[in-house]
Write a structure and sequence with these properties.
Helix content: 40-55%
Strand order of the largest sheet: 13-14-16-17-18-19-20-21
Shape: elongated
CATH architecture of the largest domain: Alpha-Beta Barrel
CATH superfamily of the largest domain: EAL domain
Number of strands: 22
Strand content: 15-25%
Largest sheet: 8 strands, mixed, barrel
Structural class: alpha/beta
Number of helices: 23
Distance between the termini: 132 Å
Number of domains: 3
Length: about 700
Amino acid sequence: MKSLSSEISFNTLASISVVSALIIGLSIYVYEKLYVEFVSAEVDAISVNMAVDLIDYIDEPAGSFNQTGILLRLDEYEYAEAAYIFGNDGTLLSHYIGPAGFKGGLTKSQEKISPQLSQTDIDKSIATLSIGLHLTSSKVIVVKTVGEEVFPMGRLALVFNLEEALKASRQRYIILVTPSVALLIIISLFISSRAQSRAMRPLNTLIKTMDSVVDDNAYDVKVEEVNKEEMLALSRAFNNMMANIKKQSEANRQKNEMLQKQQSQMERLANFDALTGLPNRQCLMKLLSNELALAQKNSHELGLLFIDLDDFKAINDSFGHDTGDKFLLHISLLMDSALGDNCTLGRLGGDEFIVIVRELITPSDLEKIALKLVEVVSQPHIINRLKLDSSASLGLALASECKYSLTSLITNADVAMYKAKDDGKSRFVWFTDEMLARTQRKVLISTRITDALENNAFYLTYQAKVDSDKNITGFETLLRWKDEVLGQVPPGEFIHVAEQTDKISQISLWVLKQLRYEFPLLLEAFGRNVVVSVNLSPHDLNNHNVTQFLLHELNIGKLPASNLEIEITETAYMNNFNVANPFFASLKELGCKLALDDFGTGYSSLSYLTQFDIDTLKIDRSFVSKIGESKQSEMITKTIIDMAKSLNFSVCAEGVETQEQAEFLINQGCNTLQGFLYSRPIPLMELVGKTVNQSQDA
């Protein structure tokens, strides 16, 4: 038969153990649940930021420096296991193994997603996951779209090791609590062993108190300290234990509140733009979806304005990103203050904004809002003591015209905005169905450009330049493209698309590389004095890859500097003057020639010409074509030739198609003529073969 002391000790030990286990178990459960939510929100936010940053580099070659640099940001996260960047077609562009991936997480082959799997298995498993957050027993996986949902450019997948994070957190908690609980249990056992029969009533009271703690989680209760040695010690020990438990519980509560606060902050970051405080893309899509559903239900009209600031990149490039950020904040405040209560302004990203207009009465009301925004943005702005001029292009679309479809509404407004830019900027344009067809072709052209570069669908043609005696003095290199899907695509169409999608520099690199092989054939066929002209885009002047490649090829002799002439439009030269001048100076030092193309259509100022170290002025075909028809054009052409001679420039007239035009230009002293009168652009093999045949005939 057990003694009362032993029974008391046993009961005390059992009660304390149960309470401690419940407290520890409940605390661990709540803490881990909140921790999982916090980690999930943090990983989602990280993926959003990385997906936005990848937009500019998704089209770069797989494993590029920029892609790798973005992925390496994950090194600062201890539990980052892996990351993957996929192209729009599902191909793996870049693969990253994080700190958690090197700590043993790779050995768990039973996981659905595991870096230990083969490359092929990894790609397939990631590629099949839907966009969003995915939780497994041990991992957090987030898949995000890179680029617009309408026109996705790729996918980003992040894998974080949740198991290791939870394990570490659980260990820290147990280490903190276990000594106190163990100490209290030992004290309770000692006290209970001294209890006597006369202590039964206080002991029963203590047991009831313990039961209330278990039932109500009331950790702030205390037992009365009776004037009996054994019970006094026991009651004091219990009260001390409850104080410690309460202290730990309060600490856990504060931690939970901190986690909840962090979660709230993450939610705000996930839904509001950090710079302007406006709703971000994620929030706007949710809001617009809800507003569309409500408008359709109530048969109300809803309008959407898609806003893009014109030439904002120039502000960043010229004055720095700090000024650019302050400018964006300033503009966002101005636009927001100009809108009514039925309007919601949000920032999609960069310099793109949208305005949701609810319960629109007439389309003219949307036009009034658009006109007001154009006027607000177009006024001068003082930022960091700088006077900055700006403008905005707006696209307008109605929800009813696209059957209240979110994707279609955004697409329509976006398409209309680009039409506004094409029409001259600083204006608004309504969406029409014809715009969508043109946009779809632009998208197809942009997509096919990459394929054309990879499969050499581009080819070079050469148009002869002749002197007054019809002797060939050189050629202009002209790019042509025959696509297996689109057929023959005009340069005026695909060059514009390439510049808008930042693919023009890839094309320029292809042209320069192709010239390395074709240049020797031209020199062999037409002599060592022939000069070949190559056009550079304004974008090329700011592209380090293009400029450095050209300089390198000239330095090593792959391209003959004395036979190469670079053509650049006067507008492109002036818009990139600070960058262009040092680059062209380097070319001139190597022996290259420089021609100012399309002269007369841009700045056309003598003061500008004095700043250009050029060799040749090219008169634009718009003046040449009117020779014999317009005395004004003839006068302008004569003036350009005289001005060029006074500055010791050579003069080349392009677009010569009639004998009358040729005679006029020769009589005025034009050095070089180019046009269909002498030759159309001809592919190299045909050009060289024609020369060979002519030699044989002679």
